[in-house]
């Protein structure tokens, strides 16, 4: 141990003889240090000139690190050493580091709530490391205190300080040498930035030792550690203990049994020694991990991984007048301890200008309590970030939404985390407020009105925002508060920053196609012309030409047997051609009637083309809405005059509500049942169909309409009772004029218009009726086609009822009188069914030409014939039985049961008459006629 102590003493005494020249430093290191195999260097000094000696020390310590020799240092100008160099070397620092000084300086700023500051440095060694240390410390403290560096000035000439004059910085951190500080503060005094509103906080290098220069302003603050000779001797003892503990730990470790603390280094080249001591890195770790007991209850001397002292203590100094008023002295007014939570303990301070209160740290600003009530897009609320408890850039500023007495019972951090107490306010008015605060230089507290009302005169007193101004609970109201004569009578308004009025919001109803939409392509007169004139004229013309034509009926009532044409078939032909139906029709034979049919077909082509083109337009869904002219529309102002009555409302205790109450008493009483507590509820009610209209401020409704996702909302009518939004103040407030001037400036330079465009725009444009996308047709839109089909079904059912009535009650009488000619001329098919004789003719024709085309049909026909033969045999048996009893049946000729009997031609024109036993003549059909009738029936 004596050998090591002797070596350390040689090292220290040799270093004191170093000259600044790099070559001399290298020669001294080679000859006086390496030659005696030093294993560590103790570098201790209290020289605070911060000039060439500082750079020489850096060079020396860098060389020691390159050679692998650990250094235990305590030097007063340590703050000037470059951190990058020290991190790359094997150095332990017993003195407070640069990080300790910056932490102590920022603790002073935190104590007095100085959020923003500037940094002033010279070109002293390590000035960039000082700025970096400040930034790193700010990052560590950002969770509990937010700092803002306004400027970082590198002083080289007097003009460099002009930046501080033009900024809002009132607190400056100064890092330079004592001599440089004299010039900097002298120029700062000339620029008037050392008065009572400015605070300068200096580092160790500025304070140094000795009498403070007269250029230093009263009230300066600084951080300092003792650099006297007594302190230096104490630190030598500590350094030796660190070295001794490190050697002891190194030697006692069995892993180092084969390692020596002799360096055996040489600067003479290969063969004479190594150029780097490889064991030095290993020995440095043992030195860094030591723990040396300290005096006076301070923490043990320990080091971080970078070789920096863990626990450091700094004195807080204040420059104040001494006993001799012309002399200044640095007086210790507190202490900063890195190992304590608060860290800072400060006594009374003499502030700049001999003031007993600290400066604000910002320009002389006034503070305003501002009350608001949320209403998008002017003020809208959103919860703060749950992690940082702060408002993001797009969420505005933090504002209180709870009562003051509720928040007072909680600590600030817990209250900010609770969204029922604090939220983030953003919107048009918040951006405008930020511009006012920046231009006029004031701070503010943003608070929501407690009763949640805008401010109306109810029951002999004011409520809401206006009441807070009257009672002077707030300094200003900043929201979408409308200016009216009643409010102007009790509070002061600025010039309007936005024009508005009372408007009406309605919703576009679902586009339902009219049930008669298929008739709308033509008006009533056109349909009458087509249905009554064109169709009837074409039908009778074609039939008339066919009846007159020699190739047709040739003016005969009874048509030819193979000519299947009639008046009803003409109607069928006309309708089929008109609607281009793919059905079977009977064509006329005459040339004239055929030509007329072609002319009708040409008319049908033109008619269908026009009808189809217009039908496409009428079948498109139509967006319908209530087109009110304004609040004074009779359907609104006199709600009971219209049936059914419209459902509309507004929000109570608002400007709209009070205006309607004053000028439309009946309307106000009616709409009270339909009012909604908020604008959002009213808009939702209009969207859902609960309300037909919602009445409110025009600009707010325009914004909500523009933000509607489905673009179903729109504003209608003209604005009623046009006015504007203004900033409201208490009576005779001194702030009205300054805000008025700024508002006019914002209007002239376009700031208000830019804010309006940013906040008032949306995807939908009010008043325009257009879809963003095509919607599919729903059942309601296609209802007209189904109604047409249902009407046809009902009409067919009625015709079926009449058909049954006719066949059951009327047909018997018609069969006795009609001979089949006239009915056949009207319609062959209907004539045969309406008259019995026609039906028999039809049945005879079917039987004559019937041929089965499949085995099933033949089987059924054979079965029917077999049943008929059995019936005839039964008749013969009955006749024989009668004859056996002496009863003579009438003479009857019965043919053999074969199919040929049914195929004979029937003479339906001859009547079969016989005389009964009473001598009267009776009609009796012959056997063939009876068989034919049975077949038909």
From TrEMBL:
Transmembrane portions of the chain: 525-545, 566-585, 597-620, 782-802
Disulfide links within the chain: 711-764
Bilayer topology: Multi-pass membrane protein
UniProtKB keywords: Cell membrane, Disulfide bond, Glycoprotein, Ion channel, Ion transport, Ligand-gated ion channel, Membrane, Postsynaptic cell membrane, Receptor, Synapse, Transmembrane, Transmembrane helix, Transport
Taxonomy, superkingdom: Eukaryota
Annotated localization: Cell membrane; Postsynaptic cell membrane
UniProt-annotated binding residues for L-glutamate: 487, 656, 697
Pfam annotation, one family: Lig_chan-Glu_bd
Gene Ontology terms, MF aspect: ligand-gated monoatomic ion channel activity; signaling receptor activity
Domain Ionotropic glutamate receptor C-terminal stretches: 410-762
SUPFAM superfamilies with a match to the protein in the record: Periplasmic binding protein-like I, Periplasmic binding protein-like II
Site description Interaction with the cone snail toxin Con-ikot-ikot, residues in chain: 661
GO CC annotation: postsynaptic membrane
Domain Ionotropic glutamate receptor L-glutamate and glycine-binding intervals: 413-471
Similarity section: Belongs to the glutamate-gated ion channel (TC 1.A.10.1) family.
Protein name: Glutamate receptor ionotropic, NMDA 2B isoform X3
Origin species: Thrips palmi (Melon thrips)
């Amino acid at each position: 141990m004596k050998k090591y102590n002797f070596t350390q003493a040689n090292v220290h005494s040799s270093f004191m003889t170093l000259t600044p020249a790099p070559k001399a430093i290298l020669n001294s290191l080679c000859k006086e240090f390496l030659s005696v195999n030093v294993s560590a260097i103790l570098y201790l000094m209290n020289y605070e000139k911060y000039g060439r000696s500082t750079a020489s020390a850096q060079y020396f310590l860098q060389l020691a690190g390159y050679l692998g020799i650990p250094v235990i240092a305590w030097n007063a100008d340590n703050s000037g050493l470059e951190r990058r160099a020290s991190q790359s070397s094997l150095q332990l620092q017993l003195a407070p580091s640069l990080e300790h000084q910056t932490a102590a300086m920022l603790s002073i700023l935190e104590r007095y709530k100085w959020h923003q500051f500037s940094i002033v440095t010279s070109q002293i060694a390590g000035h960039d490391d000082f700025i970096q240390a400040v930034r790193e410390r700010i990052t560590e403290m950002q969770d509990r205190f937010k700092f803002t560096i306004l400027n970082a000035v590198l002083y080289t000439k007097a003009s460099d300080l002009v930046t501080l004059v033009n900024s809002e910085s009132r607190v400056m951190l100064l890092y330079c040498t004592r001599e440089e500080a004299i010039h900097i503060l002298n120029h700062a005094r000339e620029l008037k930035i050392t008065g009572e509103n400015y605070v300068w906080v200096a580092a160790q290098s500025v304070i140094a030792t000795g009498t403070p220069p007269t250029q230093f302003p009263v009230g300066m603050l600084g951080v300092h550690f003792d650099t006297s000779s007594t302190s230096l001797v104490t630190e030598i003892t500590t350094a030796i203990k660190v070295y001794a503990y490190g050697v002891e730990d190194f030697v006692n470790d069995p892993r180092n049994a084969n390692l020596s603390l002799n360096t055996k280094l040489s600067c003479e080249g290969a063969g004479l020694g190594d150029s780097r001591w490889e064991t030095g890195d290993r020995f440095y770790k043992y030195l860094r991990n030591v723990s040396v007991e300290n005096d006076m209850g301070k923490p043990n001397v320990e080091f971080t991984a970078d070789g920096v002292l863990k626990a450091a203590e700094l004195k807080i100094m204040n420059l104040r007048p001494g006993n001799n008023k012309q002399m200044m002295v640095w007086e210790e007014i507190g202490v900063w301890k890195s190992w304590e939570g608060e860290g800072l303990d400060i006594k009374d301070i003499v502030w700049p200008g001999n003031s007993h209160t600290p400066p604000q740290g910002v320009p002389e600003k006034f503070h305003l309590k501002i009350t608001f009530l949320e209403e998008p897009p002017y003020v809208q609320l959103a919860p703060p970030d749950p992690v940082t408890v702060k408002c993001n850039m797009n969420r505005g500023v933090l504002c209180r939404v709870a009562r003051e007495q509720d928040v007072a019972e909680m600590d600030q951090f817990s209250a900010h985390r609770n969204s029922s107490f604090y939220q983030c306010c953003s919107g048009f008015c918040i951006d405008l407020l930020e511009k006012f605060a920046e231009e006029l230089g004031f701070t503010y507290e943003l608070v929501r009105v407690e009763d949640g009302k805008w401010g109306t005169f109810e029951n002999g007193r004011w409520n809401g925002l206006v009441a807070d101004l009257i009672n002077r609970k707030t300094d200003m109201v900043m929201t979408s508060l409308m200016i009216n004569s009643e409010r102007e009578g009790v509070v002061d308004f600025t010039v309007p920053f936005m024009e508005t009025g009372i408007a009406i919001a309605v919703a576009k109803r679902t586009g339902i196609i009219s049930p008669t939409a298929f008739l709308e392509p033509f008006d009533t007169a056109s349909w009458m012309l087509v249905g009554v004139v064109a169709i009837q004229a074409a039908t009778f013309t074609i039939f008339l030409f066919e009846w007159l034509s020699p190739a047709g009926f040739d003016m005969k009532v009874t048509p030819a047997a193979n000519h299947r044409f009639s008046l009803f078939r003409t109607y069928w032909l006309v309708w089929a051609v008109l609607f281009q139906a793919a059905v079977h029709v009977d064509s006329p034979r005459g040339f004239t009637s055929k030509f007329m049919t072609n002319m009708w077909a040409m008319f049908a082509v033109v008619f269908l083309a026009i009808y189809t083109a217009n039908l496409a337009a009428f079948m498109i869904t139509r967006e319908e809405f209530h087109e009110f002219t304004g609040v004074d529309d009779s359907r609104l102002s006199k709600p009971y005059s219209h049936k059914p009555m419209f459902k509309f409302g507004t929000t109570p205790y608002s400007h709209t509500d009070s205006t309607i109450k004053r000028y439309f008493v009946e309307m106000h009483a009616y709409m009270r049942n339909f009012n909604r507590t908020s604008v959002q509820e009213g808009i939702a009610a209009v969207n859902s169909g609960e309300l037909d209209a919602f009445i409110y401020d025009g600009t707010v409704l325009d914004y909500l309409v523009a933000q509607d996702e489905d673009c179903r909302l729109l504003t209608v009518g003209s604005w009623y009772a046009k006015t504007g939004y203004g900033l409201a103040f208490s009576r005779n407030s001194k702030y009205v004029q300054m805000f008025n001037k700024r508002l006019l400036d914002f209007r002239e330079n376009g700031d208000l218009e830019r804010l309006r465009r940013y906040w008032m725009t949306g995807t939908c444009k009010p008043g325009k009726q257009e879809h963003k996308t095509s919607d599919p047709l729903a059942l309601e839109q296609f209802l007209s086609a189904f109604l047409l089909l249902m009407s046809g079904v009902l009409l067919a059912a009625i015709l079926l009822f009449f058909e049954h009535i006719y066949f059951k009650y009327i047909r018997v009488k018609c069969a006795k009188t009609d001979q089949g000619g006239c009915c056949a001329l009207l319609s062959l098919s209907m004539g045969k069914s309406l008259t019995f004789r026609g039906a028999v003719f039809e049945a005879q024709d079917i039987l004559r030409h019937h041929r089965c085309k499949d085995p099933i049909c033949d089987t059924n026909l054979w079965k029917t014939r077999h049943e008929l033969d059995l019936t005839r045999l039964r008749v013969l048996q009955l006749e024989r039985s009668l004859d056996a009893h002496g009863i003579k049946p009438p003479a009857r000729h019965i043919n053999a049961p074969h199919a040929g009997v049914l195929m004979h031609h029937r003479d339906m024109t001859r009547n079969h008459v016989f005389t009964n036993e009473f001598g009267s003549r009776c009609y009796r059909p012959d056997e063939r006629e009876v068989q034919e009738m049975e077949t038909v029936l």
